Structure prediction request, 278 residues.
Amino acid sequence: MKKKPHNRGFTLVEVIVVLVIVGILLAFLIPALTGYIKKAAITACNANKAQLLRDLTAEEIYTKQADGYYDTRELQELADKSEYKCKQGGAYEVSRGSDGTIVIFCREHDKNYNFNMNEALSHVISNNSEIAGLIKNYADQKKHIDSTSGTGKSYEQILSALGQAGFSASQAGVQTWSLQGMGNGNYYFYWTTEDITSKNPGDKVKVLRYNSSRGTYTAGYVTIEENTLSASDSSDGQSHTYNVLGRGDTKWEEYKDTPQSGKDKKDYNTIFDVFKKM
Prediction:
């Protein structure tokens, strides 16, 4: 009687070896594939932002020829109605760059948008004589204006001027800012991505600081203090106590882990990179 041929199957060891090889291949392929998908998503998002930017710019030029700029709210409303969206669901937020141009920020892909708050303020000062006079007065008298004051008359004036010029600090990621007069027309201007309203006096917060007398930027830490806004300086006629970025050099500490040379401090992008590492 003729024996049937014996069909030998895979042994357990052979199956395990194959699975290990497949696992090794997947370990190399999956990150590469994931990176490709992310890169493609960013490319598509950038293309949509570019088209939206062209549309908004053209609309502003056509509609506002005699009236200047759209404010931030108007720009955002136009963007929200546009067909151009981030396919990954990132919200497009529209603001002004520090040079006054329209900027579109994607909350999904633009994690490191380095908005220069000082240039935004400088743009307003250059184009608004009332704000220029206000800033000079505060600088000369060594007084301060804080975004955390909420109802401060001077703060509201600056906020309104920024809005009329199309700037939105909060949309650009700036949660807290403070202008502190140094005398002789000079000032320190601090801003940070952190909201300090719920922090405690004595806490430290990382900030960017602009020194108008030197034209330099520095990354560092400022100690939080409490301040009282007088009723006469408040738009609602009531006094308020609120957190502020501490006054003077005794409350300021330059970040030392990454050296910031004199040359570096003239370049905002270099200092912003230091700020991100803090």
Remarks:
- The helical segments are 12-63, 72-81, 117-127, 129-140, 153-164, 268-277.
- The mean pLDDT is 86.
